[in-house]
Write a structure and sequence with these properties.
Length: about 500
């Protein structure tokens, strides 16, 4: 694959960063986003002349004019296949897979918003809301970290309390329902976001949200009128709750209201934003605060108190291999517990999936992580169906995600026998025996001594009542085991003879 300069600040004169090397800021773009020319990693640096700068400019233009619009067109389809609320979709993994750095989320938002109106598809609106929440969460994270660093320089004390108070006060400033919070959003936070994401136009965000809100209010009024005419008592309670929500939203500044209300499904924009900030910063709320915080955000000027914050914590960026190994250990534990304790195995598989998906956020083309995550998804679906005494369905969103991960792992390395074998086994579980046979044969062509593949393919032939062929594969397995035992015996005898001579 050829790298594209997907992190270069296209809106800033690059020579103003004399020590910026494209080797540190490029992203790899794979087959669907391939760039035709190899790029110099020392362009726009003091290590070489400016002969390669034009190539970087051209590649950046390709990124802005071709790759980002293509990613914007494909995002709604990816989100529509997502399992769970829209706010749980991992937008960073998606943009990294497309070779786009998160610095270009503003360009992605503007490309998504082209042609969007108040009656657009709800999935497209959810895509816009996802990108918007991610941009504001990153701006809030940067501002909070800057304030923490400034406090550390002043205090120079290894105590938690001053920083704990700063975090609580800042979160109340951002998420509180007050005039001070509105001024912060309108003046300071808006400037931070527009500075960080130059392509983003907050005026466009506000205008878009205003048009959508007008349409939603009309539909809500028609719905309330219909409900009131059918069942007055129940409808009156619904009207009171809707009036309370309208009063809360009207108290917010336009930019804050846009971020909070752009989602078109049941996702809560305010809760999605604070959850994303929490994940980025690493602090934790108490269990009680976690359940009530979404309601307090709507009612109080200071929704977060000292007792709500359990600990400030820290978020450490490990090497990718750390998350992958943690996920593998959890996956192994889940497989070990399947027979004895299915409920615990479900917990381990769920934890392993989270670890693998955290790894995929930045390391999107790791074939080992992709195939292990797919195995965990299938095993989790099997265990949950087993607890419900239900037959497993291979048409669920979770299994479709596993299928997607296997395909991506094969795209990374089409000749890896382990990935091919696990995908063939998965196809066999899905009762797609013809496709499974094809991949088993590919595995055995690459590695004729792959015992697990020989056994699985022999079992598939036996299931088809092709007993003569199945017997040949089983005999081959026994032959390989005898050869291995003979080799181990010879190695032991050789070691013993050397030890005796000593």
């Amino acid at each position: 694959p050829t790298p594209l300069p997907s992190c270069l600040p296209f809106h800033v004169s690059i020579p103003s960063f004399p020590q910026l090397h494209t080797a540190n800021v490029i992203k790899h773009v794979y087959e669907n986003n391939r760039y035709s020319e190899p790029l110099c990693s020392d362009a726009y640096s003091s290590f070489t002349d400016n002969s390669h700068n034009a190539e970087i400019d051209e590649a950046t233009a390709v990124l802005l004019n071709e790759i980002i619009p293509r990613a914007a067109r494909d995002l709604p389809e990816m989100l529509s296949n997502h399992e769970g609320p829209s706010s749980s979709f991992r937008i960073t993994e998606y943009v990294h897979r497309r070779g786009v750095n998160v610095r270009f989320l503003g360009a992605l938002f503007m490309s998504l918003s082209h042609g969007v109106s108040d009656d657009s598809d709800p999935v497209t609106l959810n895509c816009l809301a996802l990108v918007l929440v991610e941009m504001f969460a990153r701006a809030i994270k940067g501002d909070l970290r800057r304030r923490l660093r400034s406090r550390m320089r002043k205090k120079k004390l290894p105590l938690e309390e001053p920083y704990r108070k700063l975090v609580i006060d800042y979160l109340n400033l951002v998420f509180g329902c007050s005039d001070l919070s509105n001024r912060y959003w309108s003046d300071h936070l808006r400037a931070l976001v527009e500075q960080k994401y130059k392509a983003l136009e907050c005026t466009r965000v506000i205008t878009l949200c205003r048009d959508i809100t007008i349409t939603r209010n009309k539909r809500a009024a028609e719905h309330r009128l219909a409900q009131f005419s059918k069942k007055k008592k129940k409808a009156s309670g619904d009207v009171r709750s809707m009036l309370g929500m309208d009063k809360y939203l009207s108290s917010l500044c336009e930019l804050k209201r846009a971020v909070y209300t752009l989602f078109a499904d049941e996702s809560n924009g305010a809760y999605a934003l604070i959850s994303r900030v929490q994940a980025m910063m690493g602090f934790r709320f108490t269990a009680k605060a976690q359940t009530s915080i979404s309601e307090k955000l709507m009612e109080e000027s200071q929704p977060i108190s000292r007792t709500d914050l359990d600990q400030i914590g820290e978020r450490i960026k490990h090497m990718n291999i750390v998350l992958s190994v943690e996920g593998y250990l959890l996956m192994t534990k889940g497989f070990q517990m399947r027979a004895a304790d299915p409920a615990s195995s479900i917990t381990y598989f769920s934890m392993a999936i989270k670890k693998f998906e955290q790894d995929l956020n930045s390391n999107t083309y790791s074939k080992v992580t992709l195939r292990n995550c797919a195995r965990c998804l299938v095993a989790l679906e099997e265990e949950e169906c087993h607890l419900r005494n239900a037959k497993i369905s291979f048409d669920t969103l979770r299994v479709n995600r596993a299928f997607e991960y296997f395909i991506r792992a094969l795209e990374c390395d089409p000749t890896d026998p382990v990935t091919l074998f696990q995908y063939a086994f998965f196809l066999g579980q899905c009762e797609k025996l013809d496709m499974a046979e094809e991949y088993y044969l590919q595995v055995l062509e690459l590695d004729p001594r792959f015992v697990e593949a020989l056994h699985a393919y022999g079992a598939l032939l036996q299931e088809r009542c092709e007993f003569e062929w199945a017997e040949k594969f089983f005999e081959r397995i026994m032959q390989l085991k005898r050869i291995d035992r003979s080799k181990r015996r010879r190695s032991v005898l050789s070691y013993n003879s050397k030890y005796t001579r000593r």
